[in-house]
Amino acid sequence: MRFGVRGRSRLNTGGDRGRPRLNTGGIRVGSRISAVLSARRRHRFAGAVVVMIALGAFGGAYALASPSSKASADAAQATQIEEGRKLFAVSCSSCHGLNAQGTNEGPTLIGVGAAAVDFQVGTGRMPAQQPGAQIPPKKVVFSDEEIAALSAYVASLGPGPSVPSKEQLNTSDLTDAEIAEGGELFRTNCASCHNVAGKGGALTWGKYAPNLTGSSPRHIYEAMLTGPQQMPVFSEAVITPDDKRKIIGYLEALKTEPSRGGFGLGGLGPVTEGLATWIVGIGSLVIITVWIASRGQKVKGVKGK
Amino acid sequence: MSSATPKAVSAPLEFLDERVGLAKLVKSNLRKVFPDHWSFLLGEIALYSFIVLLLSGTFLTLWFKPSMQEIVYNGAYGPMQGLHMSEAFASTLDISFSVRGGLLMRQIHHWAAMLFIGAMTIHMLRVFFTGAFRKPREINWLIGTILLQLGLIEGFTGYSLPDDLLSGTGLRFVEGLIRSVPVVGTYVSFFLFGGEFPGDAIIPRLYPIHILLLPGLILALVAAHIGLVVYHKHTQHTGSGRTNKNVVGYPLMPVYMAKAGGFFFIVFGVTALMGALFQLNPVWIYGPYNAAQVGAGTQPDWYMGWVEGGLRIMPNWETHIAGFTISWNIFIPGVGLLGLLAVVMSIYPFIERWVTGDNREHHLLDKPRNQPTRTGFGVAGMTFYGLLWIGGGNDIIATTFHLAINDITWFLRIAIFIGPVIAFMITKRICIGLQRRDRDKLLHGTESGIVMRLPHGEFIEVHKPLPMEQAYELAAHDRQEPLDIGAGVDHNGVEAPNRRILRLRARVSRFWFGDAVQKPTAGELEAAHTHGHGHDDGHGELEAGESEAHRPEVGAGSGKTPT
Ligand code: HEM
Ligand code: HEM
């Protein structure tokens, strides 16, 4: 069942993320193709061609993945897990161990579930590059298929949270009141680290809660489910799937709300407002005072009593 | 009234003149002269932004509901539908989204508040660094000190009114601050909030304070403040033709008034532009106050940021006595810093007067460099304030510059003590360097850029004597020697009775004036101008001049005598 879901959501995100991702996918296929692709990348029809290829590929993948019969699904799943295991051995096992049992460098991944892999790899946090206070998101190095394979592999090691379904992420049917409720939930559970507008905030020793404005609904959901790095886990029992959807709906609403009252000053609140007061306000007024006082110096010389 | 004045204007004026003596009042005051320097307009920025506050605040009162009654929101802002919130918060949302021009007015009001206190601050710095607080203006300085405190409180009460998450958190901060006062804290807090925080009394109580009591007090004090400026006449910078006994500038009417009137509209314009262009305090993003919530990046407005910084860098000290907790971690930075500001500002003019023993009136301003110690103190104070400011924004700084918040805290814990001392020393050195240069210029004139070769082969640069005006400007201040208390025994060999205090004063005075560079005496000037302008003797002469004291002087004023 999860398999079918993956197929669909992959299709979905592939569309969301658009061209640059598909290019990276292409480059990994083979150096010849990649050379052609990168040379023709800016061709007038490049976009159209890529879309065609993508449609073909996803259509094919979907046909393969859709649970037309249980046997073929099982077989497909087995190959996917196997593919994931290979990728894991190459890219992840140096820290997490050959069987994902964990080493001194990285924790065990048995039982973390597909959601954790999808989040960590899908945001580029994994594979981690260098030790630091916190592992930052970077450019994603795996294609969607590869991430799906890795997720399937890790999910096969032990039960854990799976990647949220499309329905769980669908916020389009939320009412204003439900979105407002999501806001309350966000402010109560998340804002103390991520700030009320989701702009992020500092934690101790150089760690931080990241800015959420660029995060996709799927990754937000997965972060709540799996509690990456400093973040606590908000299991489905603590915040129900419906409430998670409302929180995501609220964050999406904040993104689509126009910046009322003018330029938002980074949405960081009083610190940037104070800077604007001094630099724009007091700064321009002082310049004006200098200008006013420099006018008509010549008239001077009236003596007071 | 001149015969050219149309009757429509002259008739009512005559009416007033005959009844309240308008003409006399107007004539004596409107021909008052106001000197012209940009820094003298800073007080006016404060004045005009206060007027903008009065106007925009009055607009807001028409819609704002100072009530903490809980209601269910069903106004115009979608992502808040159906939330429980106070009427105060709901009315703030209504002002922002449903009242025509309401959001603009709110933003104008809030930007004007930020500018008001900012303008007061730089105005105060101007007054401090130029020594305009000296006799006879100490009272006006004190009024200003009170105005600054009132402004801080007024800003804070306004910031608390909308009852959003940010302002509620600010109130929580104040509640903690009050509770940290030993013994009475808890009682005072219960009295103020009408019980446990947050209760439902605080906003209805802050409201009349914000719109009536404090604006009234501020208005009265501003009137007194400006009345005193008119009464004392404004100070002026040194310059030729300007003495301690005259004022050079424009007559209040019409030149100055026209400028001032224009300037009001400029201040209003800048405030309105900021209100229109920059989002400020977006309460709809913060949400209604709920004591269970707090957002990362919660900060007070800038003028309270330094106190917030003090709290953030303070180690977590507490004492437990007989079941009571004394929270030094809040009391020292919170109550302590606000108290420090008030006390230091109030007593500074009197301390300086005690040290200098200077009882004369001063209508000519100091160049900051000619008071190295005072200027050093000022910059040290600004450094202290600035470091605390960094502390107040430590989380934003940490995420913006990828630093560890703990490192910032430790840096500040040390820098807050060392930084001001370093700033003091550097500033003082710079001032003394500038004084040296001024003295050099007076003695040798300015460099002309012409290099000459003397018959014996030496190269010298020809110096031009300073133009008279510049020389006057550089030499107009007094020489300030450290206090000389003599041997301390009268002719019978008996120690003077309050000798100990005198000795303390002498020591402080030495600290204050010991290494200031004195302007040249008349004798030195003459000597320098009559003998050649050789370059090599410049420094030797300077040093000699410094040790030379009691000679006749150039310029106005005379040396002081200890009192
Ligand atoms: C509501 C706030 C304030 C307003 C509206 C205000 C307004 C003014 C104005 C218009 C002047 C004359 C022009 C000028 O020198 O700038 C002035 C002078 C003065 N102000 Fe203020 N001021 C305020 C706050 C303060 C503060 C906070 C201080 C210091 C603690 C202060 C101390 C003085 C002094 C000593 C003078 C006389 C300066 C001189 O004659 O050179 N004022 N004020
Ligand atoms: C020195 C003077 C004043 C300062 C520093 C000041 C400051 C503030 C601040 C910072 C706010 C919060 C604004 C916001 O919502 O973002 C506020 C709100 C408010 N002020 Fe003032 N204010 C001053 C004078 C006045 C006066 C004179 C009035 C009324 C005659 C007034 C009426 C109000 C009202 C009704 C609100 C609440 C409305 C709202 O928050 O949108 N204020 N004030």
Q: How much helicity do the residues of chain A have?
A: 55-70%
Class based on secondary structure composition and strand pairing of chain B: mainly alpha
What is the CATH-assigned architecture of the domain at 32-235 and 254-293 in chain B?
A: Up-down Bundle
Bound heterogens, unique: protoporphyrin IX containing FE
Output the radius of gyration of chain B.
29 Å
- Overall shape of chain A: elongated
Low-confidence stretches of chain A: 1-30, 297-305
Largest sheet of chain A: 2 strands, antiparallel
User: Mean of residue pLDDT of chain A?
Assistant: 78
Number of domains of chain A: 2
Our count of helices of chain A gives 14
Please characterize this protein's 3D structure.
The complex is a heterodimer of chains A (305) and B (563). By secondary structure, chain A is mainly alpha-helical. Chain A is built from 14 helices and three strands. Chain A folds into two domains: 9-157, Cytochrome Bc1 Complex, Chain D, domain 2 (Orthogonal Bundle); 166-256, Cytochrome c-like domain (Cytochrome Bc1 Complex, Chain D, domain 2, Orthogonal Bundle), CATH 1.10.760.10. Chain A is 59% helix and 2% strand. The model of chain A is unreliable at 1-30 and 297-305 (pLDDT under 50). Chain B is mainly alpha-helical. Among the domains of chain B are: 32-235 and 254-293, Up-down Bundle (Cytochrome Bc1 Complex, Chain C); 431-484 and 498-554, no CATH class. Chain B contains 20 helices and eight strands. Chain B has helices at 7-20, 22-30, 42-61, 87-97, 102-129, 138-160, 165-179, 185-193, 202-232, 252-277, 283-286, 302-313, 328-356, 372-392, 394-401, 405-444, 468-475, 499-513, 522-530, 538-547, and strands spanning 33-34, 70-72, 84-86, 248-251, 319-321, 324-326, 446-453, 459-464. In chain B, the strands form four sheets. Chain B has a two-stranded antiparallel sheet with strand order 1-4. In chain B, strands 2-3 form a two-stranded antiparallel sheet. In chain B, strands 5-6 form a two-stranded antiparallel ribbon. In chain B, α12 (302-313) packs across α13 (328-356). The longest helix of chain B is centred in the last third of the chain and has 40 residues, at 405-444. The two termini of chain B are 52 Å apart. Chains A and B meet through α10, α11, β1, β2 and α13 of A and α5, β4, α10, α11 and α15 of B. β3 (302-303) of chain A pairs antiparallel with β4 (248-251) of chain B, so a sheet runs across the interface. Bound molecules: protoporphyrin IX containing FE (2 copies).
